[in-house]
Amino acid sequence: MAAPALARRVAGGPLWTVPLALGIVLILVPYFNLEYSIVRQLQLAMILSLLVSGLNLSLGFAGELALGQVAMYAAGAYTAGLLSVHGHTDIALQLVAAGLAALLVGVLTGIPGLRLGSWSLAMTSFFLVLLLPDVIAIFKEDTGGRNGLSGILSPTLFGRMLTPEDYFMVIAIVTVAWFAVMRNIAVSRHGTALRVLKQSPVLAASMGINVFRMKLMAYALGAVPAGLAGALFASLDLYISPEAFGFTVATTILAASVLGGSASVYGAVFGAFILQFGLNQSTDFQKYSLVVTGAFLIVGGVLLTGGLSGLARALWRRVLAEDPTAAPADRAATAGDEVPAVPGKVLKVEGVAKAFGGNQALKGVDLTATPGRVTALIGPNGSGKTTLLNMICGFYRTDAGVIALDDRQLQRMGPDRVARTGVARTFQTPNIPEGITVREAVMAGRYAGHRATVLEAVLRLPRYRKVRRGDLLEADRVLDLVGIRHLENAEATALPLGQRRLLEVARCLISNPGVLLLDETASGLDEDEVERLAEVIRRVRDAGGTVVLVEHNFQLVLSLADEIVALAHGELMAKGTPEEIQNNERVMSEYLGIDPDAPSAPHVVLADVLDDAVAEGADR
Ligand SMILES: Nc1ncnc2c1ncn2[C@@H]1O[C@H](COP(=O)(O)OP(=O)(O)OP(=O)(O)O)[C@@H](O)[C@H]1O
């Protein structure tokens, strides 16, 4: 069988069986009679893998530069160590307690850092590492201070003393189990939501995701494997001291994460094993471990985008003869004739004002958008269109005025609550997360509206499976509606601009929005793509959707809009049907730059443009 054909057959099967098989081999290592030094390195490499996977969750998946893994590692180790010193030697009990202690440290340190923003988290978590020896010294009565905690007893499990071989198996089983958990999170809707967050917190909030809660969840979840690693480490040498939780370990974790590929599940294992075995190749390496770690960090960060796992993925694609940048051959939109109803709501903006310092961007603007109609918002650059959109979405607070969707006032809500109330938007530059398929990117639009907990996702419980089935079915529906279902397995960021814009519309539609805000969706598209987009907007409007279109393409506006609202200098310049707007002198002079009194060519050209556009609009 040719290599690509064999690879395709393997790829078609459940891929998780490969790491599972490797995990089983690892669990059985005690039966292979390996040298003690190799067995020890394997144990330390598994412990490091756990630490790295925790960092991958917050750094690689959620995009938060958090360096506090070591503090959570120490919390786990000292919790387990102290339990043991006081006679509680059961390793299962120690693992649970250590996981919880690390979770607590993660939550307590994550809250201030995450509230302040990404660099603040890096700084607070970094200081945590520096402070650690002092904190341990403060409690030296219990922890042994800088001398370390001795007197840790050999671990037991359910009353039975563990041999070194048994203990190896415990470490391997915990590691394999954690990676199964991590894998289930990564391929679940929570994993996709984390990638959305990493791409852009603004995008995440506009999809109804509570950004702070999501970041905290990733950071706190990442603490759990660090706590487990700590407990496993404490019973390995039956001695722990502050030196084991220093800056060198923090750098090693970071280097292993970057080298293995921080946005991957199994990259943590690659990175950890290479670092662990690499650093212990010679005593020189150990002596200059910071320098060697730095070298690994540079190799991973500069030479390998996506780390070794990124490289492995690229090679795998090559074997499969796939080109990730080549989306499947484009087909014409094949949307079915029947479009399910879109439950549009009435959007009312009344007397909305906003100033940025001395710049009055909006001065008492009114706008009403109703179901089954397209309301276009036009105006010269700087007239306040995007500001109004951002205020409707909750990104800016109003200085005055009311914004309501049906009867619910939005002007005091944050962007994620506004989105959950039913406001969906696209962006001037399509905002699409990396590393996910078109289908996943669209399904992410349902994340906030249809909930299933992380635990339900990890254990694949019935509620999770039901929500997931709904995600898949609805994704089919909206991808059909916008005509890109044939691209569902393509990498979302690899699509050309026109299809990325359609993807954004699909992502909005899957949330069944009360109002759909389209921000310059046609910009940068060629004529065919604009026509395709216009067709999609008509279909949404005809299905009962409320559409607000912010657009510079005047011809498109005239062909699509039922009502046009024109702004100038943050104020209402004109409002009316396309016919009324095209005859409005202020719109002509201030927006289109045409002198309505001049009996010259521009007027005639404009009339031609408008005639064409209006004729097109009448066809619908
Ligand atoms: N975050 C901000 N801080 C300060 N000033 C801002 C901010 N956002 C917008 N403005 C100002 O508010 C005014 C309206 O800008 P806005 O971007 O809403 O206009 P627009 O009609 O969307 O323009 P364009 O068509 O170029 O996108 C401009 O004077 C702009 O400089």
UniProtKB/TrEMBL annotation:
The chain crosses the membrane at residues 15-34, 46-71, 91-111, 118-139, 167-186, 216-240, 252-278, 290-316. Its main location: membrane. GO terms for cellular component: plasma membrane. It is a multi-pass membrane protein. Residues 347-594 form the ABC transporter domain. It comes from the Bacteria. Keywords: ATP-binding, Cell membrane, Membrane, Nucleotide-binding, Transmembrane, Transmembrane helix, Transport. InterPro entries: AAA+_ATPase, ABC_AA/LPS_Transport, ABC_transp_permease, ABC_transporter-like_ATP-bd, LivM-like, P-loop_NTPase. It is found in: Cell membrane. SMART domains: AAA. This is Branched-chain amino acid transport system permease protein. It comes from Nocardioides kongjuensis.
